[in-house]
Amino acid sequence: MMRSLFVALLLVHVAACDMISDATRVNVKLPPRDFALDTSTFNLPQGQLPPVSCTQPADCHTSDLCPQGACTVACNTTIQECEAHVPATVKNDYDLSKDAPEYAQFASVGVVSVGVDAVYFNITQNSLTVDTPELSVYAGPTTINSPTDAGAELVGTIPRVPSKSTGRVNVVFSATGQDTIKKLMDNFKTPFRVIVAGDVVVTGGDATPTGKLVGQVNVEGHVSL
Description:
This protein has 225 residues and is α+β, with helices and mostly antiparallel strands. The protein has a domain at 26-44 and 87-199 and 206-224: Jelly Rolls, CATH 2.60.120. Helix content is 19%, strand content 39%. It contains 5 helices and 11 strands, in the order αββαββααβββββαββ. The radius of gyration is 23 Å and the shape is elongated.
């Protein structure tokens, strides 16, 4: 009985290895995840933010620029005007054991090495009237909801996206960014979360941003012998 079980397990392992024996590298792609940045959620005054002069942070009050309390305020001492800092956060969960069965099939073979080649955003719609700020990308367990939560690790940054522009925008990896994603992909049976976070800054006296940015988050990698 034990001998039959050993032979059966050996055959399963050999069959799995044979799937990638014809190539030293097989490209894999995680399931795309939708994301959107919609200014209708900013809860800023319509039309224009009221101009508020300042020389120190205490001169700026949330009630002036963020009447619904959905953002924070700061004093831009260079131009001596108060600013509204609107948090923009997008969260996406991945469960590779369910969402990417082909990848899981490769990853379950212990002799392969997993690598991460690119993380990028494919922007398909952009009617924003302002540029997006540089955004940071974090990854970790599905318990994280902000970059400061335990387990959140910096993957990299998304460069500023000009108003109305579309297309592919690559994430610039941090020093440990690829290793962070690789670690999560290696442990494919455990779901993980990717968070994109940053602040949209609007100065008092400027027109309130309008529009929406829509696209998909993509992760590309490979397995190799």
